[in-house]
Structures
1.
Amino acid sequence: PHRRHRRALRNTRPGLTLTARTPHRLRVRFGTTEADILALSAYESGWGGGRFARYGAYFDLEVAKPKKGPNPPFLLYSNGWEQALEPNRRTGRYALVAAYSSYLNSAESFAYYKGALFTNVTDPTTFGTIASQNGFGISVGTFVSIADVFVQCLH
């Protein structure tokens, strides 16, 4: 797992920086743990190697839009949208994922739009449950396993 984490950090595009201060800022602001914040962003970004991670989308904040028509306004801290290649099979709508210039901007946007869901949540099982029930595509068991990796790395 530690090797995988280091590889994920190398996979980020030039100019995207993950600093220890970013998860710490969110931990202080919302009373969560750095390990939980890092676990969610690692999973959502495909360990930093996912298609949207190239655009700084570490928390995979997205909206749906019809194939035709204008894009919605940018999310706070973002600098644009990246569109999914295929529409949702059920709805026919395309996902637009917010793009960011840095991990910090992605994290700040996550904090603004989703942070209240995780306020004072320090238990990984509870954090994972909330994430899976609120649009993040991760199972609780997977989340707890990833969070444990980051707990080990941080200590």
Note: The longest helix spans residues 140-154.
2.
Amino acid sequence: DNQAIIIYSPVVIMRLVEALGLWDVGVLSLHDLQLNLDESYNVTDVITNGTFASDSDWTKGTGWTISAGTAVATGAISTDLEQTITHVDGQTYRLTFTMTRSAGSLTPKIGGTSGTARSASGTYTENIVMGTTNALIEFTGSGFTGTLDNVSLRG
């Protein structure tokens, strides 16, 4: 009658670990739990058209275009590419994206909370806590010229 409990929410995991001290070890032990923090982010992607397959779903600031399966920033832009997302304020989300860069930097934001400014081409993954400023994911250029692709946001 061995059964495992698989928990996918980081918040539930934290609350469960805090509560374990209060539980009867005969009822539940850590051995009964399979806690995999990487898997906790394998819920539905909240981004629509993160591969930029069409010129839709994203609001483009001056200098941004979407074509050939990528978002393209030309002219050393300092504007946003953004999308309204379904979210939970205060929840940690895992953002993954690929960018190429020939000038400037690109900073992701969710709910107004900034991630790390990136100034080199590459594929990046980072955890960002959803802010309460707005319901947007934004990529803000700072003199940025380059491309953005494969955007995924899971939480």
Note: The first helix runs from residue 10 to 19.
3.
Amino acid sequence: DGQALGVVACAESDVLSWRYQHDQSDTPATVEARTYDPDTATDTRVSAAVSGEDGGSKVTLRESFRDPALAQTAATSYATSAQRNSRTLSMLLPGRPAMAAETPLALTGFHTDIDGRWIVTTATHRIDQGGYLTEVEAAPETAAARPLPSVSIG
């Protein structure tokens, strides 16, 4: 009925098995977006850092935005998506009916790269001869993508 899902606490000791993947091969450290104001003929670039990524890799969005705030929003959104898609966690747990897509998780006792807030992307519940089990796919909660200061070029 449109209400926010409660955070589900999950310790490593609650899990039957788990697998963590961090694919940095396609994850940029910075996302840049451009604005162009035809009235003043000025070009501005804004950036957003991808949380948890280091290095010099940069992606520049193809679209040019008229409004710097919209450009910043686009860069931050892309950075958030890139960070979320680079890290995945799969878990098998004894049956947990509270687990559903978009459920926020608070993970503890796994590893420093894993402990913290995650969001369930897929939850599969099954009952078989082994009992009631829940398989969960999760991605990190990424509301903390860091905007960088604007830089004017030109």
Note: Residues 68-86 form the longest helix (19 residues).
